[in-house]
Design goal:
transferase activity; Ribosomal Protein L22, Chain A; 212 residues; 6 helices; 30% helix; binds coenzyme A
Length: 212
């Protein structure tokens, strides 16, 4: 079973990434779904989606959890019954979870694709990217910023939050592999740490809310 990568962030927080290479049948090994998740699973048409969904349950097992330890709220946000924070992502054949006992966390994996150039203006001031060396660098950076905003959205969890208007990701160098971000929404300012890594044409971004 290909657990692809684990990152221990600190004593309370870590993440794990799975590279989905198994068949659906193999992924059922040692997995049982709650009635809620089984019903969702039954409605999934794509086998890639079903395999990704099952692989998340193997990532949960790395932390000693089963699907029965997970509940979803009305917005689809996952929570652990023991009160720890969790965030989940899947993109094509990569899936990931981040868990923290102390910090609100979010995670997002995205495939690096040209398509992001077309939607960039919807989530970031695109003119700021024109100084980058080439299109490949622009795609990399946009994918990181998009992943950061998705991760933050997963933490913040308010439907009205606009990626363009309410979330600001500070500029960064690729080699720093980290940055910070702020959300200003409904008169409230909150601060976040952002980290990112790139592998096999994918970008994984994770975020944690600063405790003040
Ligand atoms: C919910 C959302 C964040 C999911 O992100 P995604 O990139 O489509 O998909 P991912 O695979 O990374 O994440 C899916 C997981 O996010 C989690 N999730 C779903 N809704 C969530 C929410 N409201 N809050 C936190 N986490 C959520 C779930 O765990 C889900 O996986 P699961 O149901 O299999 O457990 C995204 O669809 C969304 O609504 N984004 C905000 C709105 C937006 O896109 N605005 C665009 C502005 S240009």
């Amino acid at each position: 079973m290909p657990l692809y990568k684990t990152i221990i962030i600190d004593n309370d927080t870590s993440l794990a990434i799975w590279k989905v290479e198994e068949t659906e049948e193999m992924l059922w090994d040692n997995v049982e779904l709650s009635p809620h998740c089984q019903s969702r699973f039954n409605g999934m048409k794509s086998t890639l989606h079903r395999r990704a969904f099952l692989s998340i349950r193997h990532l949960l097992a790395q932390y000693g959890y089963t699907d029965f330890d997970l509940v979803y709220d009305d917005n689809g946000k996952p929570h652990l019954k023991d009160g720890k924070y969790i965030s989940i992502t899947h993109s094509h054949n990569f899936t990931g979870i981040i868990i923290s006992s102390r910090l609100e966390v979010g995670i997002d994996i995205e495939m690096q694709r040209d398509k992001i150039l077309r939607i960039a203006h919807k989530f970031t001031p695109f003119e700021e990217y024109r100084t980058l060396a080439n299109t490949a660098a622009i795609i990399r950076k946009l994918t990181i910023v998009w992943g950061a905003k998705e991760s933050l959205y997963k933490i913040y969890g308010e439907r009205g939050l606009s990626f363009l208007q309410h979330i600001n990701v500070q500029d960064f160098l690729f080699e720093d592999c980290s940055t910070t971000a702020e959300i200003i929404y409904n008169g409230t300012l909150s601060h976040y740490q952002i980290h990112f890594l790139e592998f096999e044409n994918f970008t994984c971004v994770y975020a944690a809310k600063n405790r003040i």
